[in-house]
Amino acid sequence: MNKKETLLEQIRADIIDNNICPDLAKTAKNLVMGDGNIDADIVFIGEAPGKNEDETGLPFVGAAGKFLDEMLMTAGMKRSDIYITNIVKYRPPNNRDPLPEEKKAFWPFLVRQLQVIRPKIVVTLGRHSMEYFLPEQKISMIHGDPKRISFGETKIVIVPLYHPAAALYNGSMRATLIEDFMKLPTIINILEKEKK
Q: What is the distance between the alpha carbons of residues 102 and 36, in angstroms, rounded to a whole number?
């Protein structure tokens, strides 16, 4: 295991050792940490695992995950180019929204994941993950617009997007999400040019 893998494995161990959200842990089958390229420039963050994710221990493997894969392909990316995780790492019972205290309990571990991976862009999927990076904002007003924020000692770019699950049941939101997704390669190119 390389250094990043070891650090990410330690985060997983710390969640279990510190008994984070014991009520969720009791009802969940798996702790769903994340998946993908740990050297990725882009990290996608959802809210919490669903039924399929809980079964497999991997994030975004259900219908929303398939839609996410389609959008990645449309934008010229694949899952192996990115890293994907959720704020809450256990499935809430009956796929209910994660509670504020559950998100708060898992937040420090998500911060540690990001500090290990060091992405240039964080794409939040849905309001639950967006509100931690961009408090007081409404996703309907800022979806698809990159925002540069201070994150610890560094600056990162946050791109808030609607959650793919919401778009599965709403045709107009689906079109909006695909359109927003198509902006990601341009945002990456702009950041690459800034570095030079």
A: 24
**Does the pTM exceed 0.85?**
yes
Buried b or exposed e, range 22-51, using 16+ CB within 10 angstroms: eebeeebeebbbbbbbbebbbbbbbbbbbe
> What is the fold, at CATH topology level, of the domain defined by 3-195?
Uracil-DNA Glycosylase, subunit E (3.40.470)
Q: What is the DSSP code string of 120-181?
A: SEEEEESHHHHHHHSTT--HHHHTT--EEEEETTEEEEEEEE--HHHHHT-HHHHHHHHHHH
Please tell me what DSSP assigns to residue 141: H
Q: DSSP letter at 97?
A: P
Torsion sign across C-alpha atoms 165, 8, 158, 193: negative
Confidence tier at 12 by pLDDT (50, 70, 90): very high
Element (H, E) at 103: helix 100-117
Amino acid at 164: P
| Distance separating alpha carbons of residues 70 and 3, to the nearest angstrom | 32
Instruction: List pLDDT tens digits, range 94-143.
Output: 989 999 999 999 999 999 999 999 998 999 999 999 998 999 999 999 99
Distance CA 12, CA 7 (A): 9
Q: How far is CA 181 from the centre of its chain?
A: 14
The whole-angstrom separation of Cα 128 and Cα 132 is 7
Q: Can you give the residue ranges of every domain in the chain?
A: 3-195
